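Recall the central idea of this unit: under ordinary conditions, the amino acid sequence of a chain determines the structure it adopts. In this exercise we apply that idea directly, starting from the sequence alone.
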Amino acid sequence: MALLFFEILLLCSVFQLGILTSGTSLAEYEYDGPYVRFEEHNYAAAANGARVVSLNIEARGGGNILNRYKDQYYSSPCSAEDKFVVVELSKEIFVGAILIASYNDDSSHPRDLEILGSLEYPAEEWKLLGRLEAKDDIGAFQVFILPRSDHSVRYLKLRILSHHREETLCTLGTMMVYEPLIKRTRPQVFGAPFKPQQPPSPKVPPVGDTCTCKSAKELLGEEIQKILAKVESCNIWSFDRFVALLALPFFLFLFPSLVDKCGLDQGFFRGIIFSSGMLYLIMVVSKYF
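Accordingly, the structure predicted from this sequence is:
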């Protein structure tokens, strides 16, 4: 159980860091504020029609980054002045996320990269889509969310500006490119016009209908009537019966001379009146609440 719990914690930490294993599809990542879901279609996969159209003259195996074979990769001498790969994507897209992975443990790996895009090739001008900083991580995909762009591209140029380690060759195993499913929920997503939602208008009764409005006094009166109805529904004596019951002790209490003539104690009648009143109050409260 302890080992299983440790594995679950490890998987959760991997997803929180934004690093995916090679068998995991791209999930939901933060894209310029709100969360948007990226398509599960890799536009830089050879199986989907992507191809490498150019790479630096010193490099070998540029097309290998369009596959996911760990024993095949792009390689270039680290001393090369300009290390790059130009990929023709399977279709024109707005690039939202790029995943890269390095598999070779005996070579240098990209650190600082530059992502450029163009609608045509050869390109008269490359549009800068983003600059990435990769970790020296072997065998795991590193996810990079590019800044929002208003330019769609068909050709992607990846430039390796610096690398980890001081080896002879600099290698890159795989590159994957995704497009976000555009949600028109915020202004200027890829140049799309933003139309704010109008607040719902208050419902107005049709002409001829009357609105029954009650004053606070009327509402208070209704609430008092409800309370009195609940009290009357209680199975206890009403107030007039209670007064009739205490009439004789109260009368004798008012005329102490009669009490003295009868030879009775005045405090006795005072206790009867007080006890009866408290008993009646307790009965009302207990029945109502």
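The mean pLDDT is 72.
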